[in-house]
Amino acid sequence: MNEITMRLQADHLIMEALKEDISSEDVTTNSVMKEAVKGEVELICKQDGIIAGLGVFRRVFELLNDQMEITFFCKDGDEVRKGEKMGILRGDIRVLLSGERVALNFLQRMSGIATYTHQVAKLLAGSRTKLLDTRKTTPNMRIFEKYAVRVGGGYNHRYNLSDGVLLKDNHIGAAGSVAKAVEMAKAYAPFVRKIEVETENLDMVKEAVEAGADIIMLDNMSPEEMQKAIELIGGRAETECSGNVTKENIERLTSLGVDYISSGALTHSAPILDISLKNLHAV
Asked: Does 136 qualify as catalytic in the annotation?
């Protein structure tokens, strides 16, 4: 996540997280630290995984005090090991203590998503299929979680509702049919937008192909049904598999040869990566 993106899209979200944690003051820290004392603390990995979110971690402390000195010994996307020292933070001990939880919450969450995504992406190695995330993200965390997916080796589906046309079951129900929904989308959406249709059976697949959909999502179908759908599509549209895809069951889809497999689990079910700030002392 570059500096411009951080300032434009992330700073206000980080500030809201800090305000949530410090509504007026950090009573505990202010009780034991009456004035500024320079200190140092180590960033320690407590679990093997893929690190993501170091820039966000740094930004938490910078927004509290721009005089912080932070040195990392790894970068986003690196494999880290239990017990590894990943960085050193130096500055006002009050800032180190007050920013600790928020900074770690971001880093642990993002690194957990990157780690889980990496594990799932490895199961697609050697195929042409790309692993996609979804919009099933934590409210106000999407920019961080989708970044973490990319760090882990996945790809982003549309970022939000303004980003592309995806006609799901209820859109189709509102329009009256697959064909009508595609027709209306083509008439309304800018021509540069691809039109994707979510289908649940072969009849819907056939209708979507004939209506000229750019991408056809095969949602919650059996692998056998998906194979028939792919043959029916015959390269006339890109293909995407979806529907409760996890690390445990994605292998049943790897031989289908679809263009994309999307998984909400990348963001809604990834466990955190355990990371701590340890050995705080004055310098």
From this structure: yes
Strands 238-242 and 215-219: parallel
Catalytic residue among 136, 186, 194, 228: 136
Q: Give the three-class secondary structure for 264.
A: coil
Length of the chain, please? Answer: 283
Classify 140 as helix, strand or coil.
coil
The answer to pTM > 0.85 is: yes
User: Both tokens of residue 57?
Assistant: 């971690």
Distant-in-sequence contacts of 70-79, Cβ < 8 A, 24+ apart: 72/43, 75/51, 76/51, 76/52, 76/114, 76/151, 77/50, 77/51, 77/52, 77/114, 77/151, 78/50, 78/51, 79/48, 79/49, 79/50
Radius of gyration for the alpha carbons in the chain, expressed in angstroms and rounded: 23
pLDDT in tens, 232-278: 999 999 999 999 999 999 999 999 999 999 999 999 999 999 999 99
3 state SS for 76-97: CCCEECCCCEEEEEEEEHHHHH
